[in-house]
């Protein structure tokens, strides 16, 4: 069904973050993936290079993004376009939790700093 009610998602955990998957091939999508990322306060993300563009929309909190070496503090309502092949790291150094809505296309993979390739399960 194309409508996802609140709570109708699959949750995954990686690097101290939770990923709540709403749209992915396993959920009936052919082209898009969308999820909500939740970062607890004090979370440091892992840098990785993405194979596809991603769009982040800050829903809550004040996360910090490092995109190709440039660090920026974000606030509610900010939108970030992560280009294909960019290196990105998302942190939440603040005292409160943060959440973001993320959208990308099917097939996203990420290469970690140690050279490993990850296919995020929330995109499958």
Secondary structure layout:
Layout lengths: L9 E5 L2 E7 L8 E8 L8 E3 L3 E7 L3 E4 L2 E4 L5 E4 L4 E5 L6 E8 L4 E3 L4 E2 L6
Antiparallel strand pairs: 1-2, 2-3, 3-10, 4-9, 4-11, 5-8, 5-10, 6-7, 6-9, 11-12
Can you walk through the features of this model?
This protein is mostly beta strands and 124 residues long. It has one domain (11-118): Jelly Rolls (Sandwich). The protein is 0% helix and 48% strand. The protein has strands at 10-14, 17-23, 32-39, 48-50, 54-60, 64-67, 70-73, 79-82, 87-91, 98-105, 110-112, 117-118. It has a six-stranded antiparallel β-sheet, with no helix packed on it. β6 and β7 form a beta hairpin. It is globular, with a radius of gyration of 14 Å. The two termini are 17 Å apart.
Distinctive features:
124 residues, mainly beta, 12 strands, Jelly Rolls, six-stranded antiparallel β-sheet
* Order of neighbouring strands in the sheet with most strands: 1-2-3-10-5-8
Shape label = globular
Estimate the helix proportion, in percent. under 10%
CATH T-level topology: Jelly Rolls
Structural domains: how many? 1
Q: Just name the CATH architecture.
A: Sandwich
By CATH, the superfamily comes out as Jelly Rolls
**Count of strand segments:** 12
| Rg (CA only) | 14 Å
Q: Helical stretch count? A: 0
| CATH C-level class | Mainly Beta
Major β-sheet annotation: 6 strands, antiparallel
| First and last CA, distance | 17 Å
Order of helices and strands: EEEEEEEEEEEE
Mean pLDDT: 94
């Amino acid at each position: 069904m194309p409508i996802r009610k609140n709570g109708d998602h699959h949750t995954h955990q990686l690097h101290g973050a939770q990923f709540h998957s709403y749209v992915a091939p396993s959920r009936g999508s052919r082209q898009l993936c969308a999820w909500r990322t939740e970062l607890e306060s004090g979370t440091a993300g892992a840098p990785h290079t993405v194979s596809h563009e991603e769009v982040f929309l800050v829903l809550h909190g004040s996360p910090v993004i490092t995109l190709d070496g440039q660090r920026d503090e974000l606030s509610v309502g900010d939108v970030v376009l992560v280009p294909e092949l960019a290196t990105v790291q998302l942190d939440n150094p603040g005292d409160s939790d943060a959440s973001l809505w993320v959208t990308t296309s099917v097939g996203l993979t990420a290469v970690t700093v140690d050279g490993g390739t990850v296919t995020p399960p929330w995109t499958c």
